Amino acid sequence: MKKTRAIVITGNGTNCEAEAAHACRLGGFDEAVIAHIAEILSGEIRLDDFHFLNLTGGFLDGDDLGSAKAQANRLKHAGVAGTGEKLVEQFGRFIAAGKLILGVCNGFQLMVKMGMLPGFDGDYLTQRTTLTFNDCGRFQDRWVYLKADAASPSVFTKGIGPGIYLPMRHGEGKFLCDDAATLERIEREHLAVLKYSGPDYAASTMEFPLNPNGAQHAIAGLCDPTGRVMGLMPHPEAFVHYTHHPRWTREELPEEGDGLKLFRNAAEYARKNLV
Amino acid sequence: MTHRIEVALKESVRDARGERIKREIGHFLHLPVDEVRTIDVYTVDATLTQEELQQAAAGPFSDPVIQEWSIDRPLGAGFDCAVEVGFRPGVTDNVGRTAREAVEYLTGRPFAAGEGVYYSVQFLLKGAFGVSDVERIATGLLCNTLIQRYSVLSAADFMARRGFSPLVPKVLGDIKAEVREIDLDVSDEELLRISKEGVLALTLEEMRIIQAHYREPQVVAERATVGLGACPTDVELECLAQTWSEHCKHKIFSGTVQYEDEHGNKQEIKSLFKSFIQRTTSDVRAKLGDGDFCLSVFKDNAGVIRFNDQQSLVFKVETHNSPSALDPYGGALTGIVGVNRDPFGTGQGARLIFNTDVFCFADPFYEKPLPARLLHPRRIYEGVVEGVEHGGNKSGIPTVNGSLVFDERFAGKPLVFCGTAGIMPLEINGTPGYEKSIQPGDLIVMTGGRIGKDGIHGATFSSEELNENSPVTAVQIGDPITQKRMFDFLIRARDKALYRFITDNGAGGLSSSVGEMAGECGGCRMDLAKAPLKYPGLNPWEILISEAQERMSLAVPPERIDEFLSMAARFGVEATVLGEFTDNGVFHVLYDGRTVAWLPMAFMHEGLPPMQLPAKWEPPRHAEPAVEIKGDYSDDLAALLSSLNICSKESVVRRYDHEVQGGSVVKPFSGVANDGPSDAAVVRPILDSFEGVVTAHGICPRYSDIDTYHMTANAIDEALRNYVAVGGSLGLVAGLDNFCWCDPVLSEKTPDGPYKMAQLVRSNQALYDICMDYNLPLISGKDSMKNDFYDGTTKISIPPTLLFSVIGKIEDARKAVTMDVKRPGDIVYLLGKTGDELGGSEYFALTGAIGNKVPQVDTGRAYRRYQAYHQAVMQGAVASCHDLSDGGLAVAAAESAFAGGYGISLDLSRVLWKGDVAGRSDATLLFSESASRHLVTVHPEKRDEFESVMSGNCFASIGVVTAEPMVTIAGLSSAPVVKAGLAELKEAWQKTLREL
Questions:
Q1: Can you give the pTM of this predicted structure?
Q2: In what order do the strands lie in the sheet with A194-197?
Q3: Which of B395, B480, B572 sits opposite A38 (nearest CB)?
């Protein structure tokens, strides 16, 4: 049987590559490769050889021009050696081939700023939404309850139940749309996969600190209409075992953490559809 | 060709940065401001077409969803006054650098020499205030004039001039490459003037030693062969000043001390470092025998211990006090990214796994006048917290443990301790990972950032007290991303064996790093003209000693250099060959082929005789406050919970990513609402293993007012008991000592030098005694000995402070214990005895008293008890455990209770007492800070198991966890002496720093 292969891109300030790759392996991928962006731009490692692309957390270029802005610019303009292609074209081919992309935190910021999400009508290069400074004005590391939209097309959140509990760790996570029509379409097509909520996952909330950044409609995660391209601010790779949970010493918890489900779904999808 | 691109938030978008500034103007300056809006300004000094400028503005510089932009046209409107703040020439401008790279990607063409992008921020203020108010806002809040410049325009002027004109903060200068010779054949007075004016921080005796060296006929003859005259060059003198600085050479710790104790017994101590610190480690290692886990101690940038059969742990803690006093943000940021390079540059290189931070500040709400040049404690607090936040978070290293300690004397100098641990394979490419070597012929390679005038004289400046003339150039701003790129590259180069030796460029710059490396093989030959510069105009001595950040120095075998350089280029990291290592015994520096420094290695490293230091111990006597007998201590408990040293630090800690890298097990917060204060941190550095690394620390400078021996003993005990509390193993734990002292050298400025020196001696004595008893080898440390402020009239000396950090292991992290009570009905135990030891306590501090009865550590009993407790943890018999420290039993009980969300009911009559019963009272039982105590809860079904494991040790069951959300403590007369609701106690604990 052919192998399911995940790739995690690192370099220029990405920080979560090791745990993201670990989560891919735990989730069921046969291989998870951490690739430095230099190894991709030099052509040593080809995106085409993988099924699942992880754009994970960090501070790309220090978020100096606004989170992930400089990397979005780099990916749009940088060419891959020996191919005559820009890297962004390889991204397009990856999506068109029916493969999976998950952006987490800084990776999610990168995706919205490249225009890869919400990906209306197959357009993955027009920015319609953004992630900007938290209303509280500060970086925050705290755990959040995320209500899942069962009607979402996202392949990552299939069957995850009413919601998941994950850590968020960002200063620029406030989700905003360019206009009401975009927001309305995101809601109508159930693309707002995850929303900040209370512990019962009953309703989304704008209340700090449950909603740690003041995101519009409490949106924490977003997918494209195919459900194969998704981003979220909280960190699923940071809750794959019960010892990650902030209250594991006082609560009865299953062995696996909530975040692992996203990677399990990705691996299962890749196994069924991509190899 | 200079253009201003302005980027502003759209009208409808909330300006969180502006709102924060508005709040701070209200808080700090008590000025009413209606609104603050901000605009990002990119001053582009490069040849770009109009179309390219538009692409840059619309692309990387702005976010179309929330922002609008303009080119050479001001966006500001609807304000009363505008302030624009940008960097001074030569100051690290990270945003400007990233902006420039973005433009280069966009156009596909690199900038020409001298071209650049410069970042500034425009603040648009609305409100009724005068010109002087705006000046206060600018200089008091928006701008640190040491590193930034600002301009102010009223709305009318702004209109008339069409906004601010472009300002390019470019460093102007030609390639001078000037080398001066300094005539040392002069009077003593003149020698001292040369030292003082050059910020060399060399004493007269040291200047005379240098003078004598240059008079030696053999030296003169040898110098002639390389074209040098009899006078030292400025390069040589500066190099010696760095190498011999207190900061680099630790002259006080290696000096000879004449110590006299309170009984008049005299003792000569040759080197505190050798007599106490090194001896502690060698004696503990001998005691551990086959159980010795130390691999590399004191000789490298950080200490190394064994973790398991494949991996070792590396740990180092540094201070960055003086720079943080001048520029809190830049100083602290540089502190954290600087200490990152220590474990990274240890052995063949380590992967970094966590940071720790301990800050000592004056009260952020301080309202008394301060001497000129001292920043307000609140600005230091804000700046340091933010600097470490950016440095740690952006580097992707979790900040897992820390403290904030407050004392008014830290207004003189804040203490900024930053620690970093790493993990390193025991074996790398077939050789021990913790060892490295240099062979003559290996190439000297510098990687990472470029050299500028930033950080010149950092090492010598921090070897003096802070004064009004402290040099601006000593301040730097770190650049975590340049460093991260370099680490990403170097860790891969390590695994390909592309270099043989690696070390950090920190204090003293190349003079220190290459100087020390040359010591490994016996010499070097380096050409400074090859070093990449941020801008032209640096003289050779400046290139040699600049402390510009984000640089590592390496020894690369000639046969690997091509692969090394080409890999560096692919990873976007600058790497430059500066010369080669030799074995001719000379530190030989050239500039463009011409010799500019020729220093025999032996003279550089061994030319300095030990300092002579008098020390006389006279125990201070403080007024002994009477402990007030009260019927109810609930208000005292609430006051303690609100005090700066005890209150919740959550508003700071939440700003630090403590979970990145995915190995977090015990976080800074525990409990039902994720907000109880954990005692120590546990992380799993290897994600598919459950072996955990445990780290904790102890610090109690208040006790120094009574006796630094006990300050030290308590700090070590606090570190170990925090470590033990969460489940750290006593079989594999090592310590790090970080001394921050006030100047202890007798001089005109320091007439009480012998007392301060005696305090240092006593601290070292305790270090040896306690570590020996606790089997704690010291693996690394640092001293910072000049933490004073002196402006000629006012002198502020910090209290002598030892930060003691520990690192060790828990075999199975799934057995870790947290401090929150777990369920009603659990039995509460107090391990250890309580005594009449309120001296230096937080309880006395509430009324401004100190007292004399400082807590004493009984190491023998404590160690056996810690061992038994660890066994109980390993058997799963412990539900929760919290260490007792500031505020004693009452505070620990309240914290455990509100963290767990259940009440606690205690009976003071059941608490074990030690010493004179005359001192036994409700107040001492509640608030005494007696050492080595833990508050433990145990499920009733585990009672027998717990008690049997603990048998033979001092412990007592003193109460129970209750469903009722109250802290109820019965006094000796059995009537309740504390009765308070959890919610009110928690609010008291959380309110103090919540808004900061």
A1: 0.95
A2: A31-36, A5-10, A52-55, A100-104, A229-232, A219-223, A194-197, A140-148, A163-170
A3: B572
